[in-house]
Specification:
It is built from eleven helices and eleven strands. It is globular, with a radius of gyration of 20 Å. Strands 1, 2, 3, 4, 5, 6, 7, 8, 9, 10 and 11 form an eleven-stranded mixed beta sheet that branches. Strand 10 and strand 11 form a beta hairpin. Helix 2 runs parallel beside helix 4. By secondary structure, it is of the alpha/beta class.
C-alpha cells in the first residue's frame, strides 16, 4: 500500500494564505497524489481560529470535493491537530462520559459531530474516517500532527505559555509524566494527560474565533500575527521588531514567564533556534508517550526538510501548504518553511518527502497565490 501524508492545509484562513483554495495548487497536489492508495491529512486541515466555523466549512468544500473525487472508493484518514481540534472534541466528550478504557496512541472511528460530518460529506465518494492522536502506518512508522510537542517547546508561543498556565492551575507537573517512572507513580495515561492540559487552550482559541463577525482584521490568528511581525516585512514591522527584540519585550516577557514557572522558554527567536526547538520538543513528546517507532512523521511546526535523528527515532516533518512570505528564504533550497510537501510511505523502506513547489521562485509563489 502506498500512503500519502499531507499536513497543515489550514483551509479557510482569512488571510488567503491557504494555497489549496487556488485551483492551480490543487492541481499540483492531485497530480502528485495519483497512484496513492490512501491519503492521511495529518492535522490542521482546517483553520478554526480565524473565522466562524460555518465560513471555514464553506471554504473547504472545493478542496475536500477534489480530494474525494481523486480517492473515490479509497480511504481518507483525518488526524485532527491543534487548529482543528474541535473536530475531535465531540468524540472525546462521548468517550469521557463512557469512562475507561483510557486513550492510547491510536483511536480510529467514523466522524462525529456536525463539523466532521460536513467534511466527510464534502469528500464523497471517498471514505472518510479519523485517527487520533495519531496512526500507525506500519509497525515501525507512526504519524501524528505533533501538537503535543507544545508542552515541551522552548519557544514562547501563545500555546506553549497557555499549556504551562493550565498545568499550574491544575497543579500538574510541568512537561508531563516521567516515562521511566514506576506504573504506580504515573498520574494517568500519558495521552489523556496531554489532552487534559492542552484541550482548554484549543477550546478557548476556537471560541474566540466563533465570536468574530466577518473576517478578523489582519487576516490571521493572534499567534500568527505576532510571529509575522517578528519575522520580517515592511519598515514599520521592522521598527517594531527591532524594539521588541532589543532587550525590552521578548527578553522581559521570557524572564517573567520563567519566573512564574511557565517555562523554560528562550528569547532566541532565530529561524535556526525555532526549527531546532520544534524537533527537540517532538523527540521529548515521543519519549514520554513511549511511541517506540523507528520513524515518526509529524507536522505542526511547518518546518519541512531532511529527517533528523533524535536518539532511536527519525523525525520527518511534513511542512505545510500555507504561503508565509515573511518566513521564506530567497529560494526553496534556503527555506525550511517553503510550502508544498507530501510524505509518501510504502510497505517497506524509509518514508519519502516530496517538495512539489520548489521550482517556483518567491515572486512566482506570491503571484500564484494572489
Amino acid at each position: 500500500m502506498r500512503t500519502a501524508i499531507v499536513s497543515d492545509l489550514h483551509l479557510g484562513l482569512g488571510s488567503g494564505a491557504d494555497l489549496l483554495r487556488h485551483e492551480r495548487f490543487r492541481a499540483v497536489l492531485l497530480e502528485r497524489l495519483a497512484g496513492a492508495d490512501r491519503l492521511i491529512l495529518l492535522g490542521d486541515v482546517l483553520e478554526l481560529r480565524d473565522r466562524p466555523l460555518a465560513e471555514v466549512l464553506a471554504a473547504t468544500a472545493p478542496v475536500m470535493s477534489a480530494l474525494g473525487e481523486a480517492f473515490a472508493g479509497r480511504e481518507i484518514v483525518i488526524v485532527p491537530g491543534n487548529h482543528d481540534h474541535h473536530l475531535i472534541e465531540p468524540w472525546l466528550e462521548r468517550r469521557a462520559l463512557a469512562g475507561p478504557p483510557a486513550l492510547g496512541l491510536e483511536q480510529t472511528g467514523e466522524p462525529e459531530g456536525v463539523a466532521f460530518a460536513t467534511l466527510a460529506a464534502q469528500a464523497q465518494p471517498a471514505s472518510v474516517c479519523f485517527a487520533y492522536p495519531g496512526t500507525w502506518i506500519r509497525s515501525d512508522v507512526y504519524a501524528t500532527h505533533g501538537h503535543y510537542l507544545d508542552r515541551h517547546l522552548t519557544v514562547p508561543t501563545i500555546e506553549r505559555l497557555g499549556v504551562a498556565l493550565v498545568e499550574r492551575v491544575l497543579g500538574m507537573p510541568g512537561g508531563g509524566p516521567d516515562p521511566l517512572a514506576p506504573p504506580e507513580d504515573e498520574p494517568e495515561t500519558t495521552v489523556a494527560e496531554y489532552e487534559r492540559v492542552q484541550t482548554p487552550v484549543y477550546a478557548l482559541l476556537f471560541a474566540l474565533a466563533q465570536a468574530t463577525v466577518g473576517e478578523r482584521r489582519g487576516g490571521a490568528d493572534p499567534s500568527a500575527r505576532i510571529w509575522q511581525m517578528l519575522s520580517g516585512g515592511d519598515t514599520r514591522a521592522a521598527k517594531v521588531r527591532s524594539w521588541i527584540l532589543g532587550a525590552v519585550a521578548v527578553p522581559g516577557a521570557v524572564g517573567v514567564a520563567n519566573r512564574l514557572g511557565l517555562g523554560p522558554v528562550s528569547s532566541d527567536l532565530s529561524a535556526t533556534a525555532i526549527g531546532r526547538a520544534g524537533f527537540d520538543a517532538m523527540a521529548e513528546a515521543a519519549e514520554r508517550l513511549a511511541i517506540g517507532a523507528e520513524h515518526l512523521i509529524f507536522g505542526h511546526t511547518h518546518h519541512r526538510g531532511s529527517p533528523r535523528e533524535q536518539g532511536a527515532v527519525r523525525l520527518w516533518n511534513t511542512g505545510s501548504w500555507v504561503h508565509s512570505p515573511t518566513l521564506l528564504g530567497a529560494t526553496a533550497a534556503k527555506s525550511p518553511y517553503w510550502p508544498g510537501t507530501i510524505c509518501f510511505v510504502e510497505d517497506e523502506g524509509d518514508p519519502e518527502l516530496v517538495h512539489t513547489l520548489d521550482q517556483l521562485t518567491r515572486e512566482q509563489l506570491a503571484e500564484a497565490s494572489d
